[in-house]
Amino acid sequence: MNIDPFAQHAKALSLRAERTEVLANNIANADTPGFKARDFDFQLAMAGESLNAPLRLSTTSVDHIPVNDSLFESRVSLAYRMPAQPSVDGNTVETDIEQAQYADNTIGYQASLSFINRKIQGLQLAIRGGS
Amino acid sequence: MALNRVFDIAGSAMAAQATRLNTTASNLANADSVNGDATKVYRSRQPVFQTTQTSFGALLGAERSALGVQITDIIESNAPLAQRYAPDHPEADADGNVYVSNVNTVEEMVNMLSASRSYQSSIEIMNTTKELLTQTLSMGRS
């Protein structure tokens, strides 16, 4: 067996955790004037992550200030959510939609988690020889 | 671990909403305060919310370091004060007028409801995240 059985689910888990943070930030700023709700497309992030290496700045002269690469490690590209009913103060967070997305994301996280648990159980069964 | 940062985000939102509830309570308590001097009358206090920018990296494009919300200032409302003619009032000025605070009670009730709902959302987020973290920690045991 040369394929990592957890690779896909581990990636999904970490993306789900990142999305949890983005959505929590939206809900936390539900009353902040001018705040724009952010989100990313989970499926695109899942598909694109293995293809794209993170962008880096190149330094072509000794006078250039080298930039710490960790700043550009952000792998998913955040987009702005289009509000169904924009509010007067410029805030585009719609708490109901954010909470629905948060619930959806939580279910996805738990699904990945139970897939991993089942794989572990399967591997343990195989190691013990079915006894 | 991104899930740990969710606690910071929800915590900052809870702190901000608690401060907002505090100002609402203060405004409602002083809604009927009067004073003979227009400069000394209680004025409605309103918190100013702002998204927290934690580091320089946030400006450069590491976007997820924008964490939570903070209260940058508490401003006093400039809405006009009501003037009331009450010559028998001990605080009345030379013309027999007192000034009433500019707290808008209806606005404050709406503020209170909004703050309490937002606070509840943050608590739910914390509970859900705690559950996710607990399940993650017991991975492979069940």
Task: Furnish the topology, listing elements before pairings.
The complex is a heterodimer of chains A (131) and B (142).
Chain A: H1 7-28, E1 38-39, H2 42-48, E2 79-80, H3 95-128
Antiparallel strand pairs in A: 1-2
Chain B: H1 2-29, E1 34-35, E2 45-53, H2 56-60, E3 66-76, E4 82-85, E5 97-100, H3 105-137
Antiparallel strand pairs in B: 1-5, 2-3, 4-5
Helix pairs in contact in B: 1-3
Question: How would you sum up this structure, described in words?
Answer:
The complex is a heterodimer of chains A (131) and B (142). Chain A is mainly alpha-helical. Chain A has helices at 7-28, 42-48, 95-128, and strands spanning 38-39, 79-80. In chain A, strands 1-2 form a two-stranded antiparallel sheet. The model of chain A has no long low-confidence stretch (mean pLDDT 83). Chain B is of the alpha+beta class. The two termini of chain B are 23 Å apart. Chain B is built from three helices and five strands, in the order H-E-E-H-E-E-E-H. The model of chain B has no long low-confidence stretch (mean pLDDT 88).
Residue windows where pLDDT falls under 50 for at least 5 positions of chain A: none
Helical region count of chain A?
3
Largest sheet of chain A: 2 strands, antiparallel
| Percent in helix of chain B | 40-55%
Helix share bin of chain A: 40-55%
- Can you summarize the main beta sheet of chain B? 3 strands, antiparallel
Structural class of chain B: alpha+beta
General form of chain B: rod-shaped
- Oligomer category: heterodimer
Percent strand of chain A: under 5%
Percent in strands of chain B:
15-25%
Short description:
Chain A is mainly alpha-helical and 131 residues long.
